[in-house]
Amino acid sequence: MGSMIVNPDFEKAKTLCDWYKAEGSKITFKSISGSSNTGSSMTCGLQLMTVVQVSTMLNGTTDMAILFMVQGKVSNIYSASLVYDSCSDNNRSGTVSQAVASNEWICKTCKRKWPNPKYVYNFSFDISDSTSQTGL
C-alpha cells in the first residue's frame, strides 16, 4: 500500500509544480490506440520496434544496453521503491541513511554528510502493444 502527501515540501516537488503551472498544463498527448505502425519509422536513428521484436532481439540477454524505440501504452507501474534517498553529490547515486543524533544524511558510498538527501525517482513499468507486453 502506498501513501500520498498533498503539496509536499521539498525542492523537486516545488520545481515540478512550477513547471506544471507554467507549461505542463498546456501539453496535449496524442492517443496511440489503434495505431498500425509496422516498425519501419526512424526517429533519432532508432528504428521503431514492436515489443515482440525487442524480446526476440534481446533473447534473454540482460547484461548489455540496447537503445530502441517502442510505441505502446504503459499498462502497469510498480510503486515499490518509486523514490529513494540518494547522495546529494550530482556525480553519485549512492543511497544515504539518516544519522539520528546529528539529523544529517550520510552517503554509504562516499561517506560524505549532507543536510538533505537528493530524491531519485526510480520505477519499473510494463509497456504493451498489439504484439505483447514487457517490463522496463
> What is the CATH homologous superfamily assignment?
Nucleic acid-binding proteins
Q: What is the mean predicted local confidence, pLDDT? A: 75
Total number of distinct structural domains: 1
Question: Which sequence of strands runs across the widest sheet?
Answer: 1-2-3
Q: Helix segment count? A: 2
Label the CATH architecture. Answer: Beta Barrel
Basic shape: extended
Class by alpha and beta content: alpha+beta
Percent range for helical residues? 10-25%
SSE string:
HEEHEEEEEEEEE
CATH class: Mainly Beta
Radius of gyration: 20 Å
Low-confidence stretches: 34-43
CATH topology: OB fold (Dihydrolipoamide Acetyltransferase, E2P)
Q: Alpha-carbon distance between the termini? A: 22 Å
Largest sheet, if any?
A: 3 strands, mixed
Number of strands: 11
Oligomer: single chain
Offer a concise description of the structure:
Residues 68-134 form the Replication factor A C-terminal domain. By secondary structure, the chain is of the alpha+beta class.
Textual characterization of the structure:
The chain has 136 residues and is of the alpha+beta class. It has a single domain, classed as Nucleic acid-binding proteins (OB fold (Dihydrolipoamide Acetyltransferase, E2P)), CATH 2.40.50.140. 15% of the residues lie in helices and 29% in strands. The strands form four sheets. Strands 1-2-3 form a three-stranded mixed beta sheet. It is extended and about 55 Å long. 7% of the residues are buried. Residues 34-43 have low confidence and may be disordered. This is Replication factor A protein 1. It comes from Coemansia aciculifera. Residues 68-134 form the Replication factor A C-terminal domain.
